[in-house]
Amino acid sequence: PHPQPAREGMFHRGSGLNLTSGQYTAPVAGFYTFTATLHIVRREQQRKGQPCRGNRLRVLICVQSHCQHNSNLETVSWLESGGDLFTISVTGVLYLQAGQYASVFVDNAAGSPLTIQSGSDFSAILLGV
Length: 129
Known about the structure:
Helices cover 0% and strands 50% of the residues. By secondary structure, the protein is an all-beta fold. Belongs to the adipolin/erythroferrone family.
């Protein structure tokens, strides 16, 4: 039997994903494909005159919370000044040892508070050992 989903429409198979911590722990060593799709709402508009560099938003999937080069997947998005809702995805393959975990991080340099909306997702699939 599979664990019951935490909410309607959610698919969850296997024991590696901890919904409380947001971490996926590898049950066996191997290559895993990870995908995170975040629906993000900017809660207040940027003030005019703020530098454009403040519109950058990075989403990362990191192993063991270490987000240095070669142990993460990363996407960088430039937020448009006119919108309030953004969808940002990051996907790729990482090697995890058994017991290591991966989780999603958001580096917000956007200059305004952001909220991750329901319907966002994070998945991991074992490709091979």
